[in-house]
Each structure stands twice: as C-alpha cells, then as structure tokens.
Amino acid sequence: MNRSGNKSTFVPALLLGMLAAFLIPSLWSRHVHYRLGNPALITGWWLFSVMLFLASFNARKRLSMLPLGRASTWLACHVAGGFLTLALFWLHTRTLWPRGLYEQALACLFYALNLSGIIGWLMQRTYPRQLSQTGVEFIFERIPAEVADLREGAEALVMECTREMGSDTLARHYLETLHWHFREPRFFWDHAFFGGKKARAWVRQQFDAVRLYLNDRERSFLDRLTALAERKSDVDFHYATQMLMKRWLLLHVPLTVAVMLLVFWHVLLVHLYAL
User: Fold this and answer.
1) How is residue 32 annotated by DSSP?
2) Quick one: which of 53, 54, 43, 56 has its CA closest to 89?
3) What is the Cα–Cα distance from 58 to 63, expressed in whole angstroms?
4) pTM value?
5) In this structure, what are the phi and psi dihedrals at residue 59, rounded to the nearest 5 degrees?
6) Which residue, among 151, 153, 217, has the nearest Cα to 185 in the 3D structure?
7) How far apart are CA 132 and CA 263, in angstroms?
8) What is the pLDDT of residue 74?
9) 3-class SS at 143?
10) Domain residue spans in the chain?
11) How far apart are CA 238 and CA 191, in angstroms?
12) Whether 42 contacts 32, CB under 8 Å
C-alpha cells in the first residue's frame, strides 16, 4: 500500500518537475530576449545541466552501494529527463535541424542518442514481461549450452526412431531442415521485434510437412521432437531479447560520450568567440 501510494504521488511530481524545468528557461530566455540579451546562453546552459544529470545515471549504477536513492527513481528521472532534453534542444536551437556542418553533426548524434535511449526504455518495459510469459527462464551465459543439449537430444531421438522403426524418413527430414534450426539460435530479429511468430510458424510448417509420411509410432517420435523444437524457440526468444537488453548500452553509452564531448567543444567555442 505504501509503495503504490508513493508511486501515485511520484509520477505527478515528476511530470510537474519536467514542466517546470521547461517553463523556467523558456520564460527566462524570453525575458532576456526582451532586454536585448542572448537567450541562447540561458537555454544552452540549462540544457547542458540536464544532460550532465542524465550522464550521471551511469555513475549512479556503478555506485549502487552508496545511499543515493532508489535505482527505480533514478531510472524514471533519467527517462523523463531524456524527453526533456529534446524539448530543451528545440528551445535552444529554435529548429528541428540546424544549419552548419558542425551543428548538424551534433544534432545527428543528439537525435541518435535519444533514439537509442527510447529504444532501450521500450525494451526494458516490454521484454521482461514477455520473457516471463514463456514460463521458462534461461541464464544468458548458459544459452549456448542449452542449445547444445537440445540439439543432442533431438539427434538422439531421431537415431532412436531410425533404429526402432527401420525407416530413415524422420532422420532425412531432420538433416535437411531441422538440423539447421537446432544448430544455433535462429530468427534473431523475428524474436526480437515480432515475438517469434515467423519462427514458430516455420517450425510448425516443417513438422506438418513430414507428419503425413509417418506411421503412428513414428509420429510419437515426431511429437517428442516437436516439444524439443518448441523449447528451442523459447531459447531463441530469450537469446534475442536478452542479447539486445545487454548490448544496447554498447551503443547508448558511446553516443553519450560523443555527444558530451561535442557539447563541451561547443561551449568552449561559444564563449571563446564571445570574448
């Protein structure tokens, strides 16, 4: 009850904070403009301060042992601040796409940084729930071993069917199609963005294609092989989603560093030419 109450009050407070963080520089810069000052200095320094706060989120994660507030609160502020920087950027530049090669390079990196942040936020919001709906859990580092176990189980099942039935129909079908599926994680982008619908449809198609040529006893082996293939699809889904959640920071963090370096240079140039 206490947690839900805190959450119900935190979200409106965060939204009000974002609104205030945008209105203050907006009104302040307008006041400076009317007094024939340079409003870009106000909006620029305000934007720079917010970006420094956002960049400190990575330091907060590394210093998790210190009492610096709840990680969920920092994450919410980081996400809200990311959207705020877009509004402040447009307030500062007064355009969606500035002129000049240097300004365009900075804008391109800034938009790429925000896009990567939005994608990462969406993944963190959707993937954990989808992973829990599979009903199984896989440690990412153990997935290659899990794939190898499934492949060995499928091959042992096919060999058992061949020995008992004296027919290689299922074995030939496995070598021609299903071996490709069991060899390593497949359908990466389908699992990552479409929930593995194409992958599961492909698996059903392969089993439906051979079922007509098997007798009842062979179909029992096929059903067991189908269960292994479906588990393999679950493994592939975990591999794709966990891979993206782990690796997207390899894009987001370097973009953050690049943007901050260009911003530092931009600040130096502005104040050097102002002297």
Assistant:
1) H
2) 43
3) 9
4) 0.80
5) -65, -35
6) 151
7) 41
8) 80
9) helix
10) 2-134, 142-246
11) 8
12) yes
